[in-house]
Amino acid sequence: DTAVSQTPKYLVTQMGNDKSIKCEQNLGHDTMYWYKQDSKKFLKIMFSYNNKELIINETVPNRFSPKSPDKAHLNLHINSLELGDSAVYFCASSQLFEQYFGPGTRLTVT
Amino acid sequence: QKEVEQNSGPLSVPEGAIASLNCTYSDRVSQSFFWYRQYSGKSPELIMSIYSNGDKEDGRFTAQLNKASQYVSLLIRDSQPSDSATYLCAVNVRNAGNNRKLIWGLGTSLAVNP
């Protein structure tokens, strides 16, 4: 019955590798988001999709590429991983203004 | 730069007391305000939303909004040790492309002591 799910939960990889995180929501929401929460716990929006259309791109490096195959799924692909990409990445969804979060993916780049 | 400010704490209260968490925001035209709770190692969980000036109560939680002062607060009555968490304030704003997004405070860490 998980409303917003993400895989994987943990990701440990080396610099320079490429990795993907997947997100799915079963709430029927039209809008999905990717957030990054850094070591200081600051939560910052990266991308937002509404009905598969990208509507927010918050000056994220081109190495990050989101993809929404349908409105229930939002994936995040990261190329050429850097040490500074280490963080927790949260997916969220909303119908209007209230956002609901997935469990997060803890990415560690070594 | 649109901002949301919170006192980082830690705010320490005894069990059974009222915990008061405060948040100020810079965008005068914001209309939607949210409080999330985040336990260590977990994701943010929505606990209250408020859209109109005044108080909104839900169980032990009361959100208070004053748009003139650009201030939103969260009161937790009869605080329990299970309320110990970081409380994040979020404000809905429009970006340059006229799309809505949440901007977040850094959170206030609350510790409820048995």
Secondary structure layout:
The complex is a heterodimer of chains A (110) and B (114).
Chain A: E1 4-7, E2 10-13, E3 19-25, E4 31-37, E5 43-50, E6 53-57, E7 64-70, E8 73-78, E9 87-94, E10 99-101, E11 105-109
Parallel strand pairs in A: 2-11
Antiparallel strand pairs in A: 1-3, 3-8, 4-5, 4-9, 5-6, 7-8, 9-10, 9-11
Chain B: E1 4-6, E2 11-14, E3 19-25, E4 33-38, E5 45-50, E6 54-58, E7 61-66, E8 71-76, E9 85-94, E10 100-104, E11 108-113
Parallel strand pairs in B: 2-11
Antiparallel strand pairs in B: 1-3, 3-8, 4-5, 4-9, 6-7, 7-8, 9-10, 9-11
Keywords:
heterodimer, A: 110 residues, mainly beta, seven-stranded mixed β-sheet, four-stranded antiparallel β-sheet, globular, B: 114 residues, six-stranded mixed β-sheet
Written overview of the protein:
The complex is a heterodimer of chains A (110) and B (114). Chain A has 110 residues and is mostly beta strands. Chain A contains no helices and eleven strands. Chain A has strands spanning 4-7, 10-13, 19-25, 31-37, 43-50, 53-57, 64-70, 73-78, 87-94, 99-101, 105-109. In chain A, strands 2, 4, 5, 6, 9, 10 and 11 form a seven-stranded mixed β-sheet that branches. A four-stranded antiparallel β-sheet of chain A has the order 1-3-8-7, with no helix packed on it. In chain A, a hairpin with a 4-residue loop joins β9 (87-94) and β10 (99-101). The mean pLDDT of chain A is 95. By secondary structure, chain B is mainly β. Helix content of chain B is 0%, strand content 56%. Chain B contains no helices and eleven strands. In chain B, strands 2, 4, 5, 9, 10 and 11 form a six-stranded mixed β-sheet that branches. In chain B, strands 1-3-8-7-6 form a five-stranded antiparallel β-sheet, with no helix packed on it. Chain B is globular and about 45 Å long. Chains A and B meet through β5 and β10 of A and β5, β9 and β10 of B.
